Amino acid sequence: MAVVKFPPKQINPFLSEYLVTGFYRDDGVVLVSPDKPVPNGAKLG
Fold it and tell me: Would you report the helix, strand and coil content of the chain in percent, each value rounded to 5?
């Protein structure tokens, strides 16, 4: 799951325009994902 249409931000050599969401765990990062199918571009409510 990601947030898009952010203002561009320079992060080292990369230009980022979105934010991927996740949670930290001791063994790494778990990316946020819906538990049921939703269409691309659906709004998070």
Answer: 0, 55, 45
Contact 38, 20 (CB under 8 A): no
* Boundaries of every domain in the chain: 2-31
Judge whether 32 and 44 are in contact, CB under 8 Å: no
pLDDT score at 45: 80
d(CA 7, CA 13): 16
Q: What is the pLDDT of residue 5?
A: 85
Regarding pTM above 0.70, the answer is no
